[in-house]
Design brief:
This protein is an alpha+beta fold and 578 residues long. Helices cover 52% and strands 10% of the residues. It folds into 5 domains: 91 residues, Zinc finger, CHC2-typedomain (DNA Primase, Chain A, Alpha-Beta Complex); 123 residues, DNA primase, catalytic core, N-terminal domain (DNA primase DNAg catalytic core, N-terminal domain, Alpha-Beta Complex), CATH 3.90.980; 120 residues, Dna Topoisomerase Vi A Subunit, Chain: A, domain 2 (3-Layer(aba) Sandwich), CATH 3.40.1360; 37 residues, no CATH class; 133 residues. The strands form 3 sheets. A 5-stranded antiparallel beta sheet has the order 1-2-3-4-5, with helices on both faces. A 5-stranded mixed beta sheet has the order 11-10-12-13-14, with helices on both faces. A hairpin with a 4-residue loop joins strand 3 and strand 4. The longest helix has 34 residues. The chain is globular, with a radius of gyration of 29 Å. The two termini are 53 Å apart.
Length: 578
């Protein structure tokens, strides 16, 4: 084997791996389970031990062992590869290129440095009375939570940790690359409570340090800088501890501070994470979206909180998650953050997170508090800001709902607001139909007949010559079209590069093709004709859209040309029906 992935696949079967997460039941040659992503009663999660793949029919997700771990653990491919390599006892470095091997070795050294540093900080906590008082008395943390979040103490010496690590045999460059040195070459964390930063699998990637007493000109929190292991734009504090609870609860709460996360987890509300002192990014939201699309933000209602929410709404559209805002219940007196509220009354925190407000409505409320919407200027300002927020919403029903809300708030007609949209410069460029592929929905049921066509040709290769009737790029995604090209060329060996896709395609088509009426040849002819007809129909719809644009532009020559093309397509469609 010349690839680490092949070696890992040879050692870990998909049924054994999935069996660690799901209750599997054998049905013939396959296994079935309830989908981990939907609340279903009839199992739709299928595993094929023969093909070593899985497919979840309720969500459209599928793949091999790597795809499974990426979905259930919220990892990217590299993280999943390393996770499964450790599980299988495979050394990835053996298979990597020289450069990749050097990077892997470097990462491993940095992980060791961070692990030894975490142990060092925890040992220092036990030895320092002032730090112990701060952690256990002031912050009211339990021993269990201190262990779970790897909380320790960085002493005040300039190079206490650095000298300790040098004695352990690590170089000053590696200590710096682990993010543990300041610009003067001393310890970056001094006289601070230190909390470990972990990736989604629980591996250490850095630290965050909080002062245990106020110091002039010292930041309250200090994070590890960007390193080979720590990427602040994607790291989510508490995710490794929260991911299973997020799935169970069906939603995730995002707070601003690490201590808010720790307090909530200690109180038993564990589906809570933070972005660790950095602005929300689309990477954060996509990572959270792997566990739940219901993302609830607990941000301050000051201008910074409003700005952060405005940015998050735009990012939420890109990430495909539903955003709402949690407002802290203040019935027990004003609480500045979740940590303070939890110390007062846990039930008020539970009440707060159970009553989120859609993010856009929350922002409308904040605008209304700051703008006098009884005046003409106020109505103009409010509508401009609010419309800017909703104009890029993808769903037309949602967009229409919020436009109506804006109209009601400022007391104008909906038609007037829609007119503000029309004030923007228009283009007379004819519209073009664009086929959009969803990242997690490669096998869309609307075009399931295309999968059947390809599956039948793969199973019965005598049909490949019949596929030459079809033009290239006639199907509805890149993979399907590439497989069609390969089958038409009859160079079947090339299908190996689409191994996973082909396996899922065959798995999905098995049952349908097993129930066809008539001969396989007749079925192939029917499927080819259906592909042709669908293609002609789509071309016709596209031309009709162009015709509408030509009429708007008053271009008679273009209209005549398009009409002739539509007539020709109608002839072809009618001949195909006979």
């Amino acid at each position: 084997m010349n690839d680490a992935r092949d070696e890992i696949k040879a050692r870990i079967s998909i049924e054994d791996l999935a069996g660690e997460y799901l209750e599997l039941k054998r049905t013939g040659r396959n296994f079935k389970a309830l989908s981990p992503w939907t609340n279903e009663r009839t199992p739709s999660f299928i595993i094929s031990p023969d093909k070593q793949i899985w497919h979840d029919f309720s969500s459209g997700k599928g793949g091999d062992i790597f795809g499974f771990i990426m979905e259930v653990e919220g990892m990217n491919f590299r993280e999943a590869l390393e996770f499964l390599a450790r599980k299988a006892g495979v050394e990835i470095e053996t298979f990597d290129s020289k450069r990749s091997k050097e990077i892997a070795e470097k990462k491993e050294r940095l992980r060791k440095i961070l692990q030894i540093s975490a142990n060092f900080y925890q040992h220092m906590l036990i030895r320092d009375k002032e730090a112990l008082r701060y952690v256990f008395r002031n912050r009211k943390l339990s021993k269990e939570i201190v262990q779970e979040f790897k909380i320790g103490f960085a002493p005040n010496g300039q190079k206490t940790l650095t000298n300790f690590l040098l004695k352990k045999g690590f170089s000053i460059n590696d200590i710096r690359d682990a993010g543990l040195l300041n610009r003067f070459g001393g310890d970056i964390f001094r006289n601070r409570m230190v909390i470990a930063l972990q990736d989604s699998s629980g591996s250490l990637v850095g630290f965050t340090g909080r002062v245990i007493k106020d110091e002039p000109n010292a930041p309250k929190y200090l994070n590890t800088p960007q390193t080979l292991l720590y990427d602040k734009s994607s790291n989510i504090f508490g995710l490794s501890q929260a991911k299973n609870e997020i799935r169970k609860a069906g939603f995730v709460v995002v707070v601003e501070g690490n201590m808010d996360v720790i307090s909530s987890h200690q109180a038993g509300v564990k589906n809570v994470v933070a972005t660790a002192g950095t602005a929300m990014t689309v990477h954060h939201l996509k990572a959270l979206g792997r566990f739940s699309n219901d993302v609830r933000l607990c941000f301050d209602s000051d201008q910074a909180g409003i700005s952060a929410t405005e940015r998050a709404i735009s990012l939420g559209q890109q990430a495909g998650v539903d955003l709402s805002i949690i407002t802290l219940n203040q019935s027990a007196g004003k609480s500045k953050d979740p940590d303070e509220l939890i110390q007062k009354d846990l039930e008020l925190w539970n009440d707060s997170i159970s009553k989120p407000q859609p993010a856009i409505e929350w922002i409308f409320d904040q605008y209304e508090k700051r703008i006098n919407i009884t005046t003409a200027i106020g109505k103009k300002e409010f509508s401009t800001m609010a419309l800017k927020l909703v104009e890029n919403l993808n769903d037309p029903v949602e967009k229409d709902f919020y436009i109506e809300q804006i109209a009601k708030r400022i007391g104008v007609s909906k038609a007037i607001l829609l007119g503000k949209f029309d004030e923007k410069p228009k283009t007379t460029k004819p519209k073009r139909r664009i086929k959009i592929e969803k990242a997690n929905d490669r096998f869309i049921d609307e075009y399931i007949y295309e999968d059947d066509l390809l599956a039948l040709a793969i199973k019965e290769q005598k049909f490949t010559k019949m596929l030459r009737e079809l033009q290239n790029n006639i199907l509805h995604n890149k993979q399907r079209n590439k497989i069609l090209e390969i089958l038409k060329s009859e160079d079947i060996e090339l299908l190996k590069s689409f191994d996973e896709y082909v396996k899922i395609l065959l798995l999905k088509a098995d049952e349908r093709l097993g129930n066809i009426k008539g001969s396989a040849t007749d079925e192939m002819k029917r499927l080819i004709q259906k592909v042709k007809t669908q293609n002609l129909q789509e071309r016709k719809e596209n031309l009709q859209e162009q015709l509408e644009n030509a009429e708007i532009q008053g271009d008679e020559n273009l209209k005549t040309k398009i009409l002739l093309e539509i007539m020709q397509l109608n002839k072809e469609l009618n001949s195909g029906k006979r």
